[in-house]
Amino acid sequence: MDTKATIVALAALAQESRLAVFRLLIQLGPEGMAATKIGAQLGIAPSSMSFHLKELAHANLVTARQEGRFVIYSANFNVMNEVIGFLTKNCCGGNVCSPVVACCETEEKVS
């Protein structure tokens, strides 16, 4: 992943509703969820939901597929991993990094 694509992805996530949508889709896994259900679960109006999903799709952070009359959105895990890889490339300059704390432990302490 190059710098420009990373900036586009980070810019798409730099908004509260889009970050919430992306985090929900990450939790749902490859199955994803219909746009209407995402909006209902997060309390986002349908017109806003379309805009936010368009921005996430433009950044290649989500993919869409048609299932009957519904459009199902899923997180694009490959792109998410590329962004994380770009941000952590050459971490600590080849030196041993400080101890890593598991994500779930951090989340539990915050709650």
TrEMBL record:
Origin: domain of life: Bacteria
Record bears the keyword Transcription: yes
InterPro entries xref list: ArsR-like_HTH, HTH_ArsR_DNA-bd_dom, Metal_resp_trans_reg, WH-like_DNA-bd_sf, WH_DNA-bd_sf
Q: Does the keyword Glycoprotein apply?
A: no
SMART domains associated with the record: HTH_ARSR (SM00418)
Q: Name one Pfam family in it.
A: HTH_20
Could you tell me the keywords of this UniProt record?
DNA-binding, Transcription, Transcription regulation
- Residues in domain HTH arsR-type? 1-95
Q: Which NCBIfam families match?
A: HTH_metalloreg (NF033788)
PANTHER family with a match to the protein in the record: ARSENICAL RESISTANCE OPERON REPRESSOR ARSR-RELATED
Protein name according to UniProt: ArsR/SmtB family transcription factor
Q: State the taxonomy lineage.
A: Bacteria, Pseudomonadati, Pseudomonadota, Betaproteobacteria, Burkholderiales
